[in-house]
Amino acid sequence: MATGRTHRPATRSRGIPEATVARLPLYLRALTALSERSVPTVSSEELAAAAGVNSAKLRKDFSYLGSYGTRGVGYDVEYLVYQISRELGLTQDWPVVIVGIGNLGAALANYGGFASRGFRVAALIDADPAMTGKPVAGIPVQHADALEDIVRDNGVSIGVIATPAGAAQQVCDRLVGAGVTSILNFAPTMLTVPDGVDVRKVDLSIELQILAFHEQRKAGEDAAADDDAAPAPAAVKGAAAAAAAAAAMDEADPKGTDGEAPAVMPA
Amino acid sequence: MATGRTHRPATRSRGIPEATVARLPLYLRALTALSERSVPTVSSEELAAAAGVNSAKLRKDFSYLGSYGTRGVGYDVEYLVYQISRELGLTQDWPVVIVGIGNLGAALANYGGFASRGFRVAALIDADPAMTGKPVAGIPVQHADALEDIVRDNGVSIGVIATPAGAAQQVCDRLVGAGVTSILNFAPTMLTVPDGVDVRKVDLSIELQILAFHEQRKAGEDAAADDDAAPAPAAVKGAAAAAAAAAAMDEADPKGTDGEAPAVMPA
DNA sequence: GACTGTGAAAAGTTTCACAGCT
DNA sequence: AGCTGTGAAACTTTTCACAGTC
């Protein structure tokens, strides 16, 4: 992150704000829906409504990409779809490996977003020998031993980690060692990676906890002063219990820290 | 979002920045790990490292909660765990319903974070009659017809939507109608909700697209000027294809709009 | 001496409002 | 007349750096 790698040959004017990049997929989705309905042009106001942002923000965002609109008219849907796709790097297809084919990994493999074009699921990898060869979403699971070969043979640069928390760092290290430079981490743990490797994290328990925070706020609108349920002096002990609850989320799988067969399957 | 509902009775000094709230679960996780190892106190530096942020940010974040540290010493782990848990509303337990027991919904039901305490999976709901009664993660799936009753009977205020995109808004409306005021949305679609209802969105395809953006940047270090693969004039057509890829992600399930039995379970 | 808590500066993001093109 | 593109203002978040406390 702190890499001073902003060499930029000053060709155009690069350097799109991170906040804007995070919204481009949103716009792309809205645009694609319009494209499918053969809508030829769209105004910033309409598109913004469809994407759930306000129009000033959208126009500002697009201004970082260039001037792709027409004043008095709006944006050409197809053209904008192309420009955003290109900006996001979706005009090429990215082979992706998913490591950890437990419940979540299997769901991801089946997820339309992964199976469809743009991102191609190049391989599914799991440490459990019992899984090896088993097809999930039509793709046979391969054993973790082959991880490095798979990554190299397929030129994979994006890896998805869906293992239990305990295995994530090790898997990450091996992915990176084999040449992966972008990681989407579903394991609820912090990954340490060398400079130049990107990690994005999707954390289900965190999202829920943020919701709980706001939910609590709504409930406590009047009961401002006191907690009702919290025992004041013995609190610290009760705290540990409550926290354990939140902490239990630290395992994608309730038990095993090893990459071993998750006890998740009901059998 | 534009609700001017900042009534705040000025009792203490409320109003924790959103960015801080989003990090509290991270700290909580790191703290709980320390608690389990019976570490009594921790410095901002150590905790920050464990949570993957810098120490100044962490101290600033904690300063919004109050002064829970001791200068020259650090923070009492148990105490801080309690304070953060309380702040997040995790000292009470939240009944949650998951709607849409396809691949993703099943994975969520099995996910440690949902099944563990703090958040209790009160019910699993699916529109497919074939699913009704089937146990997933030990909980029998109930039919969508009963949604309103389930929400009311269990006092559910948090709902998780894991349906295909096409069903999400309708499910959302029904949840909200029945009294749910916080929604975690996994369907890749924008939800419209009345004021006072919170929506958080987890979108797998968006995260991948953001990774692709950065990945592309790394690759294109020298090839600054031209795209190599992009056909310039015929581009707009190729664009549509690439975009279709991204758009295909708009369905949580590749095919069926119904919540048919997921291929997730190996058995 | 070690470490927190916090003002103040810097950086990043959003919103406003309007000039400028079609 | 309608709508984009963008400077400038407002707001939020991060970082700095150090006074204050143990």
Properties at a glance:
cytoplasm (chains A, B), Arc Repressor Mutant, subunit A, alpha/beta, 3-stranded antiparallel beta sheet, CoA-bd (chains A, B), Rossmann fold, disordered N terminus, transcription (chains A, B), 43% helix, Redox-sensing transcriptional repressor Rex (chains A, B), 267 residues, DNA-binding, 7-stranded mixed beta sheet, 10 helices, homodimer
Radius of gyration of chain A: 23 Å
Structural class of chain A: alpha/beta
Please describe the biggest sheet of chain A, giving its number of strands, its sense, and whether it closes into a barrel: 7 strands, mixed
- Fold-level CATH name of the domain at 94-201 in chain A: Rossmann fold
Counting DSSP H or I runs of 4 or more residues, the number of helices of chain A is 10
Helix amount of chain A: 40-55%
Approximate shape of chain A: globular
Assign the CATH superfamily of the domain at 94-201 in chain A: NAD(P)-binding Rossmann-like Domain
Number of separate strands of chain A:
10
Strand percentage of chain A lies at 5-15%
Strand order of the largest sheet of chain A: 6-7-5-4-8-9-10
Overall pLDDT score of chain A: 82
Order of helix and strand elements from N to C terminus of chain A: HEHHEEHEHHEEEHEHEEHH
Instruction: Report low-confidence residues of chain A grouped into runs of 5 or more.
Output: 1-13, 224-267
Q: Identify the CATH class of the domain at 94-201 in chain A.
A: Alpha Beta
